[in-house]
Amino acid sequence: MAGRHRLLLENAQQLVLVCGRGEEYLLREGAASPAVLRDASLVVGLDGCIKAVGQADVIRNQFSGATFERIIDCSGKCVLPGLVDAHTHPVWAGDRVHEFAMKLAGASYMEIHQAGGGIHFTVEHTRKATEEELFNTFKHRLERMRRAGSTLVECKSGYGLNLETELKMLRVIERAKQSMDIGISSTYCGAHSVPKGKTATEATDDIINNHLPKLKELKLSGEIHVNNIDVFCEKGVFDLDSTRRILQAGKEIGLQINFHGDELHPMKSAELGAELGAQAISHLEEVSDEGIMAMARAKCAAVLLPTTAYMLRLKQPQARKMLEEGVIVALGSDFNPNAYCFSMPMVMHLACVNMKMSMNEALAAATINAAYALGKSDTHGSIETGKQGDLLIINSSRWEHLIYQFGGHEALIDYVIVKGKVIYQNERCGTMSSY
């Protein structure tokens, strides 16, 4: 196939497709054995999409007359889909390292929250920060996520709790969408906490009557494009009725429902999400058996966050039960001032050790299923012809090293690629041939 193309990856020891038949997601049986090609190559076109995947000799013959902007020899290495982080809070000012010591001394999340710490501490600092300050720290965090292999990241607002600061955060996210080589799914999370001086009902009314109409207006004018709506459905925060009202109003202006549920107390959030047609629900440490079954029937993804359960010493989400009941299980880092983790490989490792997922299940949960949780599994999450060329090359002959080497991704990842363009290259790799 003659012509010019953006990228050729050739001779990979393992090329991990994850899935290869256009699946939207993988359930337990499908995730048990990811599709893997050996001695394989792939081509990404100038449009950033994958043009061909197959055995190295077949691709070599098929593209014998073609030219490439870049060629990378992957002999002895593994190629995987770029990782998808399905839940992050990466736009904020004022770190909370001092609260980590409080947690270690035995303070609970809600005790810190009620003492003026937690979300309210971050809200105070984020309101004071300029848009430029927020963008610069956000950009640095995204770059660290990319180096750890993430090529699509869900990014929430939620540290404003007033319209002005929520819009400031969403403008920062929109700016990164337009200027950085990384996929972003943006989430309005104005119902992250009840603002000081308001009741939950007053905050709910403000969001429905003021915040959401403004988001709709900005979407129509092309200024800000928000993908998802989120609410922290929790005892002492937003109850089930308030959550329902906000999520329904967001759905009516075209936002996907993707919210926090059943984290610290059983709230019947899973049942509500299934009823409303939610794309995904996160946390679910306290989900009911009925909620699990409802999510399975509704094809609502469970975004599990092993970092949060680990750092807050909560009981782990019931990943095994969810998988056995037919729930679409995805993973996220929950990066935020309370759970400071950029690395999806570390998240996958924790999912395997603490939530008893297999490495194959964790890989599916951090690729195709995480993409599904964001409504993007038609373009992301697997290596298939026609999908976006978001890829990861690791310096190992077996892909499982990405999970096995806990905290080892900085030495293991050689290249991170978005739309066929190398956006991160490990310094030991030097320069590769291109023409």
From TrEMBL:
GO molecular function terms noted in the UniProt entry: imidazolonepropionase activity; metal ion binding
InterPro entries in the cross-refs: Amidohydro-rel (IPR006680), HutI (IPR005920), Metal-dep_hydrolase_composite (IPR011059), Metal_Hydrolase (IPR032466)
Annotated signal sequence range: none
Superkingdom of the source species: Eukaryota
A Gene Ontology term for the protein's cellular component: cytoplasm
Keyword Iron in record: yes
Cofactors, names only: Fe(3+)
GO biological process, one term: L-histidine catabolic process to glutamate and formate
Matches recorded under Pfam families: Amidohydro_1 (PF01979)
Catalytic reactions on record: 4-imidazolone-5-propanoate + H2O = N-formimidoyl-L-glutamate
Keywords: Histidine metabolism, Hydrolase, Iron, Metal-binding, Zinc
UniProt-listed CDD domains: Imidazolone-5PH
Transmembrane residue ranges: none
Domain Amidohydrolase-related: 79-422
EC assignment: 3.5.2.7
Pathway: Amino-acid degradation; L-histidine degradation into L-glutamate; N-formimidoyl-L-glutamate from L-histidine: step 3/3
Keyword Nucleus listed: no
Record PANTHER family: IMIDAZOLONEPROPIONASE (PTHR42752), IMIDAZOLONEPROPIONASE-RELATED (PTHR42752:SF1)
Family: Belongs to the metallo-dependent hydrolases superfamily. HutI family.
The name this protein goes by in its record: Probable imidazolonepropionase
Native organism taxonomy: Eukaryota, Metazoa, Chordata, Craniata, Vertebrata
Encoding gene, per UniProt annotation: AMDHD1
